């Protein structure tokens, strides 16, 4: 079982629509979860962190966490062309190590 | 507020050579983690340094080694380079005693092994 699973296939969304990204993880002991945005050729940029079950909103981004189901998601509302990037889900495992999946590629179509 | 910095930006080496990459953490951070990101993949954890010691290590061979200096900056050394070592090497800094303990990445060093 992979540590982090993300559907890496490109997600195409029209400008102004909602992009929904999903992530599952294997370590039930994980307590902290992070979403990073990575533009092509650039390094990951932290956009959201979530530690408790439920929803956390920050601007156009909403992270959702369900520890019982080992599931984390990210919603991007009112998607903009500048949101076109790869989104990396990263639970923290063990002593401060981040585990990454392959990422979800998002393409916002004007 | 100075962010994480890394040098060099790009590097080209040949198989068998050795390379040293450098990282300065975000101001106020004392922990440095190194990750390797191959093309099309997510970052993979190499190791983490805190108080000048390696605290955790991922599934990487001993050819990968590191060091942390008293000012919290860090180096990643890779010996006997292989073609498969070509990747983006990322440094992330954090302050674990903070409740949120977020990791912030530097711009990365793109290593090409020929």
Overview of the molecule:
The complex is a heterodimer of chains A (110) and B (114). Chain A has 110 residues and is mainly β. Helix content of chain A is 0%, strand content 55%. Chain A has no helices and eleven strands. In chain A, strands 2, 4, 5, 9, 10 and 11 form a six-stranded mixed β-sheet that branches. The model of chain A has no long low-confidence stretch (mean pLDDT 94). Chain B is mostly beta strands and 114 residues long. In chain B, 0% of the residues lie in helices and 50% in strands. Chain B is built from no helices and eleven strands. Chain B has strands spanning 5-7, 10-13, 19-24, 31-37, 44-50, 53-57, 64-68, 74-78, 87-94, 104-105, 109-113. In chain B, strands 2, 4, 5, 6, 9, 10 and 11 form a seven-stranded mixed β-sheet that branches. The mean pLDDT of chain B is 95. At the A-B interface, strand 5, strand 9 and strand 10 of A face strand 4, strand 5, strand 9 and strand 10 of B.
């Amino acid at each position: 079982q992979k540590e982090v699973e993300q559907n890496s296939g490109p997600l195409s969304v029209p400008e102004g629509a909602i992009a929904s990204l999903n992530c599952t993880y294997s370590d039930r002991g994980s307590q902290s979860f992070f979403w990073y945005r990575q533009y092509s050729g650039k390094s990951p940029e932290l956009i959201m962190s979530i530690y408790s079950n439920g929803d956390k909103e920050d601007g156009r981004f909403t992270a959702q966490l369900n520890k019982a189901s080992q599931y984390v998601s990210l919603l991007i509302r009112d998607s903009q062309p500048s949101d076109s990037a790869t989104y990396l889900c990263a639970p923290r495992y063990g002593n401060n190590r981040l585990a990454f999946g392959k990422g979800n590629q998002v393409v916002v179509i004007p | 507020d100075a962010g994480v910095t890394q040098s060099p930006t790009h590097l080209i080496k040949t198989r068998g050579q050795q390379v040293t990459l450098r990282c300065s953490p975000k101001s106020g951070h004392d922990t440095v983690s190194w990750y390797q990101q191959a093309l099309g993949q997510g970052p993979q954890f190499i190791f983490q340094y805190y108080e000048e010691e390696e605290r955790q290590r991922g599934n990487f061979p001993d050819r990968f080694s590191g060091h942390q200096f008293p000012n919290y900056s860090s180096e990643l050394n890779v010996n006997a380079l292989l073609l498969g070592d070509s990747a983006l090497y990322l440094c992330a800094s954090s302050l674990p005693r903070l409740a949120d303990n977020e990791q912030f990445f530097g711009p990365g060093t793109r290593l090409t092994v020929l």
